[in-house]
Amino acid sequence: MNSAEKPSNVDSSEIAKFEALASRWWDPESEFKPLHDINPLRANWIDEKAGVAGKKVADIGCGGGLLCEALTQRGAQLTGIDMGEAPLAVARLHQLESGLEIDYRQMTAEQLAELEPESFDVVTCLEMLEHVPDPAAVIQACARLVKPGGHVFFSTINRNPKSYLFAIIGAEYVLNMLPRGTHEYNKFIKPSEMGQWVRAAGMEVEELMGMTYNPLTKRYKLTPHDVQVNYLMRVSKPQ
């Protein structure tokens, strides 16, 4: 696919959800508070596992640039892509404020993989797979983007009764942590499904890490043995 073609692996209704909220992306008390809360956890874990300083990193579905800026502050050279025009505009505005050098582009993972195959030491794709029609195709694109020996990091939400209760009923309707309709249960992804797509793309699963939320302390933490709701997956591309 070249960049002039209309991307097929895009859900316009999902893009519209985040376009409508884009101006509040960097407000830590807005609808994006959960992202602000988990961003240091995710960035530290990625840096710990991949050592991002001095490495080329692509962030797929970067939104307003929270992870891009966090990894750039840790020494990475970031390319952030998203299909939402408004979140990217917010990311570029905040970049002027932060003074960080980040290459933001409006394109899909598939388009970037065609333009720059095997160009990145690390690829991240967090909280994005549950918002596209064909997550397996995004995983394939990430495999094409990363250099042999490189790391890819995914995060998403498991699909089971507990995740429905916590991620939709709890987060969207009871605690009002997220706008209603942010997530659709049938788009949640089981780790077994993710692992199957990763292996089909020629990569290997290295680690599975859960992330839990305590509504009493209002704190998130990484939990290696609890992937029932939110989880991250670290994968590698063989040399």
UniProtKB/TrEMBL annotation:
EC number per UniProt: 2.1.1.222, 2.1.1.64
CDD domains (alphabetical): AdoMet_MTases
Pathways per UniProt: Cofactor biosynthesis; ubiquinone biosynthesis
GO function term, MF aspect, one: 2-polyprenyl-6-hydroxyphenol methylase activity
GO annotation, biological process: methylation
Catalytic activity line of the entry: a 3-demethylubiquinol + S-adenosyl-L-methionine = a ubiquinol + S-adenosyl-L-homocysteine + H(+); a 3-(all-trans-polyprenyl)benzene-1,2-diol + S-adenosyl-L-methionine = a 2-methoxy-6-(all-trans-polyprenyl)phenol + S-adenosyl-L-homocysteine + H(+)
Domain Methyltransferase type positions: 59-154
Annotated S-adenosyl-L-methionine binding sites: 42, 61, 82, 126
Gene3D superfamilies: Vaccinia Virus protein VP39 (3.40.50.150)
Alphabetically ordered keywords of this record: Methyltransferase, S-adenosyl-L-methionine, Transferase, Ubiquinone, Ubiquinone biosynthesis
Family per similarity comment: Belongs to the methyltransferase superfamily. UbiG/COQ3 family.
NCBIfam families cross-referenced by the UniProt entry: UbiG (TIGR01983)
Role played: O-methyltransferase that catalyzes the 2 O-methylation steps in the ubiquinone biosynthetic pathway.
PANTHER family for the chain: METHYLTRANSFERASE (PTHR43464), UBIQUINONE BIOSYNTHESIS O-METHYLTRANSFERASE, MITOCHONDRIAL (PTHR43464:SF19)
Name of the molecule in the record: Ubiquinone biosynthesis O-methyltransferase
Gene this chain is encoded by: ubiG
